Recover the amino acids of this structure.
């Protein structure tokens, strides 16, 4: 039913969709503070024991503010006793190694991994330069490789050489012209290249068949791996499809600014995303109502 919902004819102007988008975005963040994100992790019970804490900044946040939030996240994570790693976005602090230094030092002293999210393709080279510098301070660093970019195979070789852990995703940003490949095929190509060679691989997808295939490849090669899921996305299908493989599951918990995890442009051109949007607007209302019930 969901994918066939007849929304193709629905051409909502972007301005009219703004309130809906704002409401839908709230379903994807675990709160506005790291404490709220950690409460969500605790409420997930054993399921949330392993998590990724990701401060999502807004366009108004200065690089210094972003760094301060990353530092707070490292400290709160260390105090929580939960198994967390910290995900960061290099463009949000201008790829500046001197700004990042205190975060790396704190992460190093608490043995917490720092992981770099993937953003637009033009940010990748600067992100890998920063990763190489970061390794001089802290050895536990991860990167994200989008399957839909042909360059990710080269970046996977670099990640192996640098000893990084890798999160494989389909990717939210398109590749430059001629460098885009079908996301599922690209995802599996990257996984095959990493299998047996990477330190650790997170299979980050809610696509049940893809997650299963990727995890089987990694397990057969003896590569340490996990399933990493986004808070707020539907999880039952992918958990059911992968349960028998007995791989650890981790939840990525964004907090701070509620960005939608898909582009507005995509939502307008792809009817199935419009359907998710409508459903998520409902989910946000529903989750808030449940939260209020719990508080009473
Ligand atoms: C843990 C994690 C970390 C990520 N980190 C990054 C990153 O650093 N950089 C990056 O570019 N991308 C990142 N992504 C996003 C990723 O690139 C995809 O855009 C996203 O995961 C959707 O693709 P999918 O592989 O889950 O498959 P899809 O086929 O797109 O989705 C599978 C199913 O998930 C559900 N679903 C998918 N999208 C939505 C949605 N927006 N709302 C509600 N339900 C939805 C639907 O039921 C759908 O059938 C991350 C994803 C995860 C899970």
């Amino acid at each position: 039913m969901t994918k066939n919902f007849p929304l193709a004819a629905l051409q909502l102007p972007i301005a009219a969709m703004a309130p809906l988008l704002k409401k839908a975005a709230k379903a994807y963040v675990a709160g506005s503070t790291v404490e709220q994100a950690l409460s969500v992790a605790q409420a997930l019970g054993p399921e949330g024991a392993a998590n990724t804490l990701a401060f999502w900044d807004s366009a108004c946040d200065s690089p210094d503010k972003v760094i301060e939030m990353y530092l707070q996240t490292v400290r709160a994570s260390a105090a929580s006793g939960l198994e967390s790693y910290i995900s960061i976005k290099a463009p949000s602090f201008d790829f500046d190694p001197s700004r990042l230094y205190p975060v790396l030092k704190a992460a190093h002293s608490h043995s917490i991994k720092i992981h770099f999210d993937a953003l637009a393709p033009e940010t990748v080279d600067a992100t890998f330069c920063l990763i190489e510098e970061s390794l001089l301070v802290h050895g536990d660093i991860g990167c994200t490789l989008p399957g839909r970019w042909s360059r990710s195979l080269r970046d996977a070789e670099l990640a192996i050489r640098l000893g990084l852990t890798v999160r494989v995703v389909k990717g939210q940003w398109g590749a430059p012209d001629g460098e885009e490949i079908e996301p599922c095929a690209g995802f599996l190509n990257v996984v095959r290249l990493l299998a047996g060679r990477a330190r650790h691989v997170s299979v980050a997808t809610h696509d049940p068949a893809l997650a299963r295939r990727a995890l089987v490849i990694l397990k057969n090669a003896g590569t340490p791996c996990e399933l990493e899921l986004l808070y707020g996305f539907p999880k039952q299908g992918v958990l059911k499809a992968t349960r028998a493989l007995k791989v650890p599951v981790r939840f990525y918990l964004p907090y701070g600014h509620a960005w939608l995890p898909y582009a507005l442009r995509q939502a307008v051109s792809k009817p199935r995303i419009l359907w998710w949007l409508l459903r998520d607007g409902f989910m946000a209302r529903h989750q808030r109502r449940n939260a209020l019930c719990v508080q009473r």
Summary: The longest strand covers residues 249-256. The domain at 45-257 is CATH 3.20.20.220 (TIM Barrel). The pocket of flavin-adenine dinucleotide is lined by residues 117-118, 144, 146, 169-173, 204-207, 228-230, 233-234, 252, 261-262, 276, 280 (CB under 6 Å). The beta strands are 50-56, 83-88, 114-116, 141-146, 165-169, 201-203, 225-230, 249-256.
